[in-house]
Amino acid sequence: MEKFENRFEQIRSINNIVITSNEFMTAFTGIQDCVKRSISFSEPVGSMLLAEGGLGKTTLCKTILSLMPRTEKIEKDHKKNIIPVCYVEVPSPATVKSLAITMLKELGDPTYENGYGTTEYLTSRLIYLLAQCETKLIFLDEFHHLFERKPTSTRMNRTTGNWLKTLVNRTGISFCLVGLPEFVPLLQVDSQIARRFPFIYHLNPLTIDPSNGGSMFAFLAEVSRTLNKQNITFS
């Protein structure tokens, strides 16, 4: 029984290991640089993290989240939550109200379930809470939900797109859109939105090259080194 428990413990430890690649590290450092630029320039600098499903987008977001954890801060006569990074899954279908409520929920707003108030009120409350929580980075995952899909065309919901531009401008926060690469050309149709997300990072599938192993070889080599460091064996 003890042997099996040790095996399960090893499996749990493996699940917590993040194997990086050059593309992963480029995106990892680049997204954090956008945060630093936004603070230094007093102007929001956004980014996009693009990949097909299962290639590490969420893992990368969670890695940055782990480096910038939530804390509590005593300020004068009250205590408040500090949320440096906010991770939000864009609801489907995405409306201004549904997205604002989802973001309020992630910030711990106790009134988000009510859904009361106009979009203007919800937006003002969201901007206020982002400032109070000292948020510096917002991940908007599944950003393709911002688009309207019709039988003859797919385009960004204009109302939601304009609201997002306003939110970026009024908060000065670095936003990172996370999703599928095929939606980028559709987003770039609106130049005002595109210029708010100038830094684009890709996570591509691993490749096999008979001559040098390709990126798969480097990945497996990193897996081996990491397991050795953790003294994990499967003998």
Task: Characterise this structure.
This protein is an alpha/beta fold and 235 residues long. The chain has a single domain, classed as 3-Layer(aba) Sandwich (Rossmann fold). Helix content is 46%, strand content 17%. The strands form three sheets. Strands 4-5-8-1-9 form a five-stranded parallel β-sheet. The chain is globular, with a radius of gyration of 20 Å. The model has no long low-confidence stretch (mean pLDDT 83).
Question: What's this model, at a glance?
Answer:
It is built from nine helices and nine strands. With 235 residues, it is an alpha/beta fold.
What is the arithmetic mean of pLDDT? 83
Fill in the CATH topology. Answer: Rossmann fold
Strand order of the largest sheet: 4-5-8-1-9
Strand segment tally: 9
Primary descriptors:
alpha/beta; 235 residues; Rossmann fold; 9 helices; two-stranded antiparallel sheet
Write the layout of secondary structure elements.
Blueprint: H1 2-15, H2 22-41, E1 47-50, H3 57-67, E2 71-75, E3 78-82, E4 85-89, H4 96-106, H5 119-132, E5 137-141, E6 147-149, E7 154-156, H6 158-171, E8 174-179, H7 184-187, H8 191-194, E9 199-202, H9 214-229
Parallel strand pairs: 1-8, 1-9, 4-5, 5-8
Antiparallel strand pairs: 2-3, 6-7
Helix pairs in contact: 2-3, 4-5
